[in-house]
Amino acid sequence: MPASSVDPDSQAIALAALESSGAGWWRVRDTQTAWWSPRMFDLFGMPQTAEVPTIEALYRMYHPDDASLAARSFMALFASEAPVTLRYRVVHPSGAVRHHLTWGRRQPADANGEVWLIGMVMDVTDHVDDAVMFEAERAFRFVAGHTSDMVVRHQVGVGLTYVSPAAKTVLGYSPREMLGRAPGDFVAPGDLQRVRGIVHGRIARRETVSTEGYEYRGIHKDGHEVWLEANPRLVINGAGELSEVVDVVRDITARRAAQAELQSARLLAEAASQAKSEFLANMSHELRTPLTSILGFSRLIGAGGDLSASDRGYLDLIRSAGETLLTVVNDILDFSKLEAGALALSPEPFSVAALGEGATALLREQAEAKGLVLSCEILGAGPAGDARLVGDVTRLRQVLLNLLGNAVKFTERGNVRLSLSVEPAQDGTATLSASVTDTGPGLAAGQIEQMFERFTQADGSVSRRFGGTGLGLAISRRLMDVMGGEIGARSDGSTGSTFWFRTVLPVAETAPDAAGRDSDGQPDGPLRILLAEDNAANRTLITALLASFDVALDMVENGQEAVAAVTARSYDLVLMDMQMPVMDGPTATRVIRASGGPGHDTPIVALSANVLPEQIRQCLDAGMQGHVAKPVDPRALMAALIEHARPRAERAGGVDAA
User: Fold this and answer.
1) Which of the four, 211, 251, 370, 624, has the lowest number of CB atoms within 10 Å?
2) Can you give the pTM of this predicted structure?
3) Of 45, 118, 107, nearest to 80 (Cα)?
């Protein structure tokens, strides 16, 4: 027999051996062309009359946990002639799971140039180590059964195939009651569409595992809602389709309740804070309104020369009491803003010398009345007054006045000295240092730190002798904290004290324009000014304050009348109260600005007891140019007139309608 001949008996024996082994044979040319031996249908639980499945349909038959591996191995056969051996599981239409062992390889191209894959499949379920499988299953069920979270497996088209015992605690159902049901049966209707959207989005992105879970409401067996947290793992088969979902569901009802309580507490705290702010604003407004008359008229009366010595003394007591009450109001407002973190700085260029000299000038009369010498010295290189920095000069002055005011208040004889120095740095900044030294009784070492606490003075009896809120130094410390500076004191306990602060500020680039208007002078006249003020005493006071200047003053009592007046006549300035009947000041300002008439651009300055930052911002946002606080300081009023009033001669196209 020629060596190339094939023994028909040998072929028959080989085929008989393969048939008896239970192996199935397959040939595949591409994803749509395949051939199966009859045994292959048995191995996949299909009837012999069925058609050979496509590769895509075959992928759906693999166990979800093995589908991706089987698909990758199959594609590897097309890339190389190296044989591939693989063990995987298939799921029969009946639901039975079988273990297969597959061998395959790529054949060389045939006479037609076609490349086929060939392979063999054997069912090895009976040969799998049952002990290993049992131990793995037991370990999984042990972990799932001993966690407080509910572990579930959902097979697409079948329903829930596994539910851990925690379901009884989480949803009130036994695992047996949930098996075979759809997961959506246990989701609150209001959340079902959203949950499905999340899962479908993950499937579309092939996001089998996500770092972010989601929360939804579940329906307990007794009908009440529970909050659940889930982050399912999606099992995608070789065809790229979702075949199973594995999830660990956590009951977060208690956590959501705690969050709701925290949210409620936060809202209550915010409401309390808002109520406090409104109370402080109202308190400030109601106190400042009468103080405007008390301080304003006492200054006007005191400016006259026809008072007896006793009457002038009484008047000074009235003015001093009013100023003390105003200081208390300002301290409470400032401390409230600082504690709430609502105080914003307004940096601007300023002269260090002017800062020191201005602060001492305000207290010089009070110091001289006690026989004290109050002095100011500017230390450092260069002529006095040439040091200019950028900072919130108003708040710096407030700190200086507090330190100087305390020194003058508690010193019975001797002197009070303010020293200021500037130490430039190489980075365009400079350290501003200030110290106030007095010859008062001094402080014990244990009292110094206590002095900077709120509502605290060196001795309880001091508050009865000298008055005050005990907030001044606490406010000064907070202001220094906001500025990034520091504040402190030193004393030997018997020969006076020194209070100091220092902070780093940018150096101002340019000097002020010397050609600017002098804020201590008088406004250019003649001026026609409109005062919108509902309080008769305040109208009388403003009239008296402006009587000595070249000012024609018209008055109205509410915002609606102010709008009508500006529409009918040209004004150089409007002084606008904020709180008025019929129409308030900000509303009237917005109406004037939006009118488009000849007076729509008239300068408007708020003249109000509303002095909180948000209230001042409300004025500016409405279209006002400035704000003068009540009680009215005549110098602040004059400064506003000088800065904002525009004589009609300077207003292009201005026409006096009178």
Assistant:
1) 211
2) 0.48
3) 107
